[in-house]
Amino acid sequence: MFLSQSRNNLITGKGRTGKPRPGLASALSVFLLILALTATGWAQTGPTSPEDFFGFRLGSDRQIARWDKIIEYFNLLAEQTETMKVIDMGPSTMGNPFLLVIISSEENLAKLNRLQEINARLNDPMGIPEDEIRNLVKEGKAVICQSMSLHATEIGGTQMAPELAYDLVSRTDEETRRILENVVFFMIPCFNPDGQIMVTDWYRKTLGTQYEGSGLPWLYHKYAGHDNNRDGDFINLKESEYAAKILYRDWIPQAYIDHHQMGSNGARLYIPPYCEPIRPYADPLVWREMSWYGAHMAYKLEENGKSGIINAAQFPGWGHFGWHWITPFHNIAGMLTESASCSVATPLFIHPDQLRGGSLQFPEYEAQTNFPHPWPGGWWKLRDIVEQKKISAWALLDLAARNKETVLWNAYLKAKRQTERGANGKPAAYIIPASQHDPLTAVKMINTLLLSGIKIERAGEAFAANGVIYPEGSFLVRLAQPKMGLIRHLLDRTPYPDNYWTRDKDGSPIRPYDLATHTMSEFMGVRVDPTDDDIQGKFQKLAEPVHKAGQIEKAGWGHVLDGRLNDSFKAVNLLLEKGAQIGRSVTAEPGIRQGDFIVTGASEAAMGEVAEKTGVDFRPLEAKPKEELRTVRRARIGMYQRYAGGNMDEGWTRLVLDNFAFPYTSVFDAEIKKGNLNAKYRTIVLPHDSPGMMTGERTERYGGRRPVSPPEYLSGFGQDGVEALVSFVDKGGTLVAIGEACMLAIDKFGLSIRNPLAGLPGKDFFCPGSTLRTSVENGHPLGYGMPPESLVVFYGNPVFEVTPGSRSEGYEVIARYAENNVLGSGWLIGEKHIAGKAAMVVAKYGKGQIVLIGFRAQHRSQTHGTFKLFFNALID
Q1: pLDDT, tens digit, for every residue of 100-109?
Q2: Domain annotation covers residue 606
Q3: Strands of 309-311's sheet in order across
Q4: Domain that holds residue 565
Q5: How many domains does the chain have?
């Protein structure tokens, strides 16, 4: 059950819980002992308050409680009370504890396993009679989850969390007792422990200097930075794994809210519900619940004298698939709050003239039905943020406690109705065939779907559907299950709405909140076949992740690794570390495809370890290939990393390289400007970034209010760096530029390439994070292993057109957008402007080459379908 699955040995909320109470015969002696302890000042009069523990009131000006002390405080509270448990879910990305705090009555905490069982049955009630459901509703408790400070610079949530916990365990009024009795509250007090520590330490370091309140010079998560909230679907990060375990599988709460902060010049606090547009396929009750909870929050905030509260504006119901936006498709009322920010913990004065609206359903900063009490301006402090977040968090718990049975009954209704919609609708299921271009990536997709609690079956024998025979080992995802809506978004083509809510009055498109689609199968390059058939056959429900260990067959000369597999690149990198010799086929011959890797000189033990770790098969090769192989050497990669807040695309790219065992070095401005880069690197990568941010030509001021960084963190390699990069390529190096970074290479190297999309207004061309159909020249070394047709993720990126010049023979197109029907999923306006245009180009320059990948080939470690186009550029 839950406690044993979630490291019960790490529960620190033991305290007095479970200890025998004194018998009546000893009552008098116990009473006298308490009196004696009180007289000497040793008695514990109740849980320690945050103010007493931290030495200041949380939210005080220029004060931040650090994560290690917050952990200490939660553990202390758990020892001092019988209504709270603390679970260490495991280490964060950088090794800090990731906590889950559970608060409820002593009786509820003693029977968590039973409550978890009830909750699971309500969230998946197939086959349970309604009379039994009603009994479960009476017996069960509302499960509510709230998470804090997912974005580490938005410190108010984590600073509020100890106060919220203290109030719940120390107050004895009727409202509190009702919450503890009727609600099991799961609190994630800090979603990004590593970032919280970074931000706290940086703020303390700059406190009292001209840089007080400035942003971190680097990302506030090792890999994702601000993008850690874009990981609710692919679950790439350690912190995401823990959250998914709580939200998607172990408990599935009835409501979830994530506490954020936003800009400083508008409303003081956004609360639910969202505004238009909304995504399809969620149960309508989930949208009604958001309005219900949000109305209670608004009422309580107004009741407590808080002004500047807005709801049903600013944040649309169609957002990215991060935590609060993906949970509605898990049948959870997924919500967020967004408090106006100060300068970290430093007060900020907002002049009335600086207050403005101008966002979705909030055109002007003036009273309207969802914003009836505008804030007049003045000093804005961290304590203001803490207080309004605590009121909002408490209101959610209060409403759930007052309406426990309604909340649980609706959980049942949502699951039941979504299952019925899946059973009665079309398609009836999705088939993931065993035969895939990259079957190991297909298995990764299956395992990722399992992390989201999606039910998947595996065929034990061949079966018929869609008029064809699918082989044994194929996977089946039926839509007759509670998470029907989530499945449709992840596995089916998803068009973004083009309507009144998504265009301005003049017809200009309104940019979606992040990508216009999150179709996992398209991102990963996995074939998924919808079917309307009622499929029968021998199927087994997956209970555990699929593990594929690679097979090794004895060979006379060497072994072949399939060049179509992403994981073959990982195998190659691991084998090179172990001293193996690797070649790459440049022509096809019997038993070898063009682009396959040929392994010799590897020990049986080394191959066995790599096969187990990667799942790649080592096919036997009895004789040396007839054609000469291209030697693959251990990579020497330098990847540009800047300051100025860091670059999220660079962080995600590091995660991709780490996951596939590519050796690399982060290269900063000083090293680039110093030159002589060929001595250390054969390949330099420029992740997607503004050319001005790389060179330093753009200001480092974030919104004009925060001071610039200290001199040692000023970013940009300038003209000296440009000249060093030109020299690096001219002498034989490879420069790989991704996304907007391509424009730096085109401009600074004087390439005969232009971006025909440059300057086009949105009404003429617009493509905000969509999948586009592309043809790939897979006979070129940069296209090896790719299918001839692929989907790429396009997110406002450049496309390429080779212009007249004296060295046109030096330009080769590796990938080109389709001539028509370009859009896969998402939103594309102005297809004619991109149809047939080059998406990826390689240009010879001196003795080296420049690889321009205009689209997001490695975007957020999600686009497995195009990883090989990036990896091929790194293979030397």
Answers
A1: 999 999 999 9
A2: yes
A3: 84-91, 97-103, 183-188, 142-148, 255-262, 333-340, 269-271, 309-311
A4: 558-632
A5: 3
